[in-house]
Amino acid sequence: MTETASYASIQNLAVNERIKYYEQELSLLNQPATFREKVLVNVYRCLLQGCVRQSDSKASLAG
User: Fold this and answer.
1) What is the pLDDT of residues 14-38, one digit of tens each?
2) Does 41 reside within a domain?
3) pTM, 2 dp
4) Domain total of the chain
5) What's the half-sphere exposure (Cβ side, CA atoms, 13 Å) at 39?
6) What is the rounded CA–CA span in Å between residue 41 and residue 33?
7) Is 34 a member of any domain?
8) What is the spatial distance between Cα 60 and Cα 63, in angstroms, rounded to a whole number?
């Protein structure tokens, strides 16, 4: 997570914006070198998967 973004501010974003944010953060960590970066990659992947599932469920309910 960038220094200026907080968990609460990210959660206030629309689902598609959160997806973009997590994808951007993952692209910055494309070759994690430290344990911390490896953990962040796993966390971002999990959060991204949750957002994608949420987006898919909203789309199926709307359609």
Assistant:
1) 999 999 999 999 999 999 999 999 9
2) yes
3) 0.78
4) 1
5) 3
6) 11
7) yes
8) 5
